[in-house]
Amino acid sequence: MNSRELLRRIQTLIHNSTGGRGIGILSTTGRDHHPHATWMGTLASPSLDRLITMTSPDSRKTQNILENPRVEWLFTSRSMSELVYLRGNARILKDPNLIKTAWNQMPDKSRAYFLSQQDVGITFFIIETRVDAIEYRLPREERHYHLGADEITDAVNHR
Question: Which residues on neighbouring strands pair with residue 50, listed in sequence order?
Fold first, then answer.
């Protein structure tokens, strides 16, 4: 598979899993070095090198990201015949303008159940992941492909 086809397949799989159409799995690790994986259904991918999601300020993933920003995302095709791992550093957005922009980029917030449990002030955090490595796997064919930070940057800049 050439690099253009690889990027197209990765972008299609991520697009089909974000924006309310699917889910991803976010894995974090806290100070105790124990992994924590969680389903994330409210997320968006404005570009190949960036993922945004929202979460409760009290969540374990929030604490883990504050202690260790290194994360991994997993997206799959419905048939599980394609897997995409996105690795990078996550951060909690604090700038009100960035929060507003991220909020507007997430088209479906219905899965953010924690929003209905609070009634005062901002009751969510926005997590932004800057992707620096991508792994695309075809398990049934025993094939996998890797894209590093430079290749991701080139892909974003040369759509």
Answer: 47, 130
Q: Which of 152, 20, 150, 1 is nearest to 82 (CA)?
A: 1
Confirm if 158 and 47 have CB atoms less than 8 A apart.
no
What does the pLDDT look like over 36-69, one tens digit per residue? Answer: 999 887 677 777 888 888 888 888 999 999 999 9
Instruction: Label residue 108 by pLDDT band (50, 70, 90).
Output: low
Domain range spanning residue 69? 3-157
> What CATH number does residue 32 fall under?
2.30.110.10
pLDDT in tens, 17-35: 765 566 889 999 988 899 9
pTM of the model: 0.84
Burial 36-47 (b: 16+ CB within 10 A, else e): eeeebbbbbbee
- The tally of domains found in the chain comes to 1
C-beta separation of 57 from 114 below 8 A = no
